[in-house]
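User: What would this chain look like folded?
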Amino acid sequence: MSNPVDETLITTPLDSLHRELGARMVPFAGHSLPVQYDGGIIAEHTHTREKASLFDVSHMGQVVLSGENAVAELEQLVPGNIAGLAEGRIRYTMLTNLRGGIIDDLMVGNAGDHLRLVVNGARADVDLAHLKDHLGKDVSIDYRQGRALMALQGPKAAAVLTGLNSVAAEMPFMSFLDFEIAGKSVSVSRCGYTGEDGYEISTMADDAEIVARALLDHADVALAGLGARDSLRLEAGLCLYGQDITEDTTPIEAGLRWSMTKKRLEAGGFMGHATINAQAESGASRRLVGLTPEGRAPARPGVAILGPDGSEIGTITSGGFGATVGGPVALGYVPIDLAESGTQLTLQIRKSQVPAIVTALPFVPHRYFKPKA
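Assistant: Here's the prediction, encoded as structure tokens.
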């Protein structure tokens, strides 16, 4: 079913398609986006794990940085190794503040003569202001609002996209390529937010519906909304900005040490380096962990985490039902001495104290595509 939304919300280029196909629209990051379709969130989640789903993620900010010093300037704002990023490859990193907190997490792609950034929609204005304040005047910042972004995710994604253009087949994970789908120019990255193989497809706004319908023509592809996207990323152990990571959490606390090289940490030169490097060397006092609650009741954000002595030691940052796992899963920060997998903790869910066990992430193994050597 479709429903009216606040007229102040931004609609995406796929808005009419969503309504035609029975989407339930909700406000998200200033946009009107589908939370689910008629089949429901669990069905969409399962379809993504088994076949392929198409998500509208046009609320994400697409930004191009150009200029001779764009790489060097951006490296002063992120802990990721941008100088070592090969052309045609993308890298996950974060904008950090002077305290080492995370302003936003983002993808950075090296297109040779420019960098392509994809940032969180809810943080786009903050990110743009930060970039304008700290990048040199010789770096051009182009916020590409005239584009759509969709994600094709699932084990059948490669077969679907390859059927429309064969060049998609051997793209390695974390690479991007420009080509055509249904006669329309697209920029395609092999990445995603579900833990499955898949692609993110950037198009001109006017071409988005044509590209989406070409993908949906395949029998293995169905639309999926924000609800399934959230439960899929939660099972995959992927952070959501504003919940699991904020300006008050560092990459080390959030378990994102893997996104930074030792050389980059030692060399520094980026905002928050002193704090982040000190935590990388000596450890942080707390850590984001996976938690598996006992029973069927989901642990929602804000639920208190209790230690062995019954005292509150942290809170749940993300939580819900994991359809693939078959039960509730959650993320939350706990003291480092209680962050080991297998540690028994307790959650205060309403009036009940529910046992929970610290669980290694991801809850569901990632299935990213990596070409055979």
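The mean pLDDT is 97. If you want, I can go into more detail on any region.
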